[in-house]
């Protein structure tokens, strides 16, 4: 029992010692030393932490020293880099296939010489990661960017399809903007470097600057159209478009100018591009809010989208080192949200325009007084009718209706009573025809009904039904009920005529023969 108690006390004491003793620090460490002839300075590097090490314009040399228990990956940004090289034990090593510049670090003691030629003075954000952490971060980043690129591609294809069918309405400018934006992020995030070697770096740097200018210009162009700025703010719209064109021109100049020859100009142009873009976004944001206040459709969504972009641009240009997350993903997320909100706004406008167009088409085919098809509507309905009907088993019939002594009704009771008479006749005819039949007004007091019947006898029955119905119609007048009558002519066809005029001529002739006979025998 005493032995057990002593063993328990001993083990408990050891546990306490272990729990209160400090954990052993990781043996992994790295530091980077600037080894230029004029400057030598060393910065310690903690895992996954950004180094404050700076880089001057021109040639830069660094010495990386690491002591690692596990393999790792060393990375730095591509932006501003014209060329680079990495040597270990005097042998140049190839970079890993990644969006940013990355090199593998083996376990143990590592020394590497890094040579970088830069366009500008900037902080390259040297970092190192344990290999497992780097793989996890890379997969997360690839998933996020894959979603963004998929969204961009889908929106571009959608705008092409819709823009092909619907002219105008800012659809094509939107597609052009999203295409430029997607290409911009393909360059910025380095995915294109996965397919091209280091020899393509100068070319990709040039095309990257071009995509910057094109993205700013295309966004301004699209929003100018979408927010009706040319109509409502003509002078300000011209100023914004001129400023956007200046950013595009500056991007072209920066893309093709040698930064080592035109050093001051290159820096001034870069500063101008950043702040001019910020001014454009701010101006468009204010104008979008004004248009939203004025009840311009979908301007509110544009205002929200631009507010997100403005915040991300402020972090990117002004608060450079405030938030690493905003620097890494804020810009991408902001533009993804903006593209999605603009897509919603554009789809709403397209839907509203489509509804208005359908309504206009419907109004153009409907007689406003009688609420049945007009001559144009009958012509369109006849074309659809001919394509659906089976001519082998169908007997076509056209019933032409003419209101008797309609001029007397107008002259005696006035045009209001005449309009009521026409509506009464139209309702009577429509009430006797089927939903699939065509009923329309083709003249002042003339109507047409077109139908397909399985039997010839069905044509005769329908003809007599219409005659009887139109013989017992009356309307209310100031003098009491007034009886109306209408003459019905019927023309039957084995095949529908090629045009509406031919069909109307045949049925109109039948109606006049019936009117001449002045009896109830069908003129077929």
From TrEMBL:
SMART domains: GGDEF. PROSITE patterns: GGDEF (PS50887). InterPro entries: 7TMR_DISM_rcpt_extracell_dom1, Diguanylate_Cyclase, GGDEF_dom, Nucleotide_cyclase, Rev_trsase/Diguanyl_cyclase. GO terms for cellular component: plasma membrane. Residues 394-524 form the GGDEF domain. Residues 1-25 form the signal peptide. Its EC number is 2.7.7.65. PANTHER family: DIGUANYLATE CYCLASE DGCM-RELATED, REGULATORY COMPONENTS OF SENSORY TRANSDUCTION SYSTEM. This is diguanylate cyclase. The lineage of its organism: Bacteria, Pseudomonadati, Pseudomonadota, Gammaproteobacteria, Alteromonadales.
């Amino acid at each position: 029992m005493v032995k057990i108690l002593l063993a328990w006390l001993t083990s408990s004491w050891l546990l306490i010692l272990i729990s209160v003793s400090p954990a052993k620090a990781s043996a992994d460490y790295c530091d980077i030393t600037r080894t230029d002839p004029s400057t030598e300075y060393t910065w310690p590097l903690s895992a996954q932490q950004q180094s404050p090490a700076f880089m001057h314009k021109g040639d830069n040399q660094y010495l990386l020293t690491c002591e690692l228990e596990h393999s790792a990956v060393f990375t730095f940004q591509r932006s501003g880099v014209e060329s680079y090289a990495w040597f270990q034990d005097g042998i140049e090593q190839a970079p890993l296939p990644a969006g940013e510049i990355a090199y593998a670090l083996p376990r143990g003691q590592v020394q590497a010489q890094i040579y970088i030629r830069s366009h500008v003075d900037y902080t390259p954000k040297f970092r190192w990661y344990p290999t497992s952490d780097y793989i996890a971060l890379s997969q997360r980043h690839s998933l996020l960017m894959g979603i963004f690129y998929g969204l961009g591609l889908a929106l571009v294809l959608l705008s092409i399809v819709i823009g092909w069918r619907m002219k105008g309405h800012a659809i094509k400018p939107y597609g052009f903007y999203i295409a430029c934006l997607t290409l911009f992020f393909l360059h910025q995030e380095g995915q294109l470097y996965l397919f091209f070697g280091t020899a393509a770096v100068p070319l990709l740097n040039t095309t990257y600057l071009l995509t910057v200018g094109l993205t700013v210009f295309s966004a301004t162009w699209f929003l100018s159209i979408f927010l009706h700025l040319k109509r409502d703010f003509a002078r300000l719209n011209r100023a914004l478009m001129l400023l956007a064109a200046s950013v595009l021109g500056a991007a072209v100049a920066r893309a093709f100018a040698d930064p080592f020859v035109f050093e001051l100009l290159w820096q001034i142009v870069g500063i101008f591009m950043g702040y001019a873009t910020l001014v454009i976004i701010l101006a468009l944001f204010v104008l979008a809010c004004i248009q939203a206040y004025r009840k311009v459709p979908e301007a509110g969504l544009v205002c929200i989208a631009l507010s997100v972009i403005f915040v991300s641009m402020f972090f990117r240009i002004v608060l450079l080192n405030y938030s690493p997350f905003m620097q890494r993903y804020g810009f991408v997320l902001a533009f993804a949200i903006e593209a999605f909100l603009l897509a919603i706004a554009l789809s709403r406008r397209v839907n509203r325009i489509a509804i208005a167009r359908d309504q206009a088409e419907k109004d153009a085919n409907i007689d406003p007084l009688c609420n049945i098809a007009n001559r144009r509507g009958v012509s369109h309905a006849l074309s659809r009718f001919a394509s659906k009907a089976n001519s082998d088993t169908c007997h076509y019939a056209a019933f032409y209706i003419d209101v008797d002594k309609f001029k007397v009704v107008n002259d005696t009771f006035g045009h209001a009573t005449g309009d009521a008479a026409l509506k009464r006749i139209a309702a009577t005819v429509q009430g006797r025809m089927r939903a699939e039949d065509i009923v329309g007004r083709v003249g002042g007091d003339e109507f047409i009904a077109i139908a397909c019947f399985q039997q010839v006898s069905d044509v005769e029955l329908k003809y007599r039904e219409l005659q009887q119905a139109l013989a017992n119609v009356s309307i209310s007048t100031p003098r009491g009920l007034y009886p109306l009558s209408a003459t019905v002519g019927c023309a039957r066809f084995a095949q529908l005529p090629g045009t509406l005029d031919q069909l109307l001529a045949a049925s109109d002739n039948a109606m006049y023969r019936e009117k001449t006979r002045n009896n109830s025998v069908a003129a077929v």
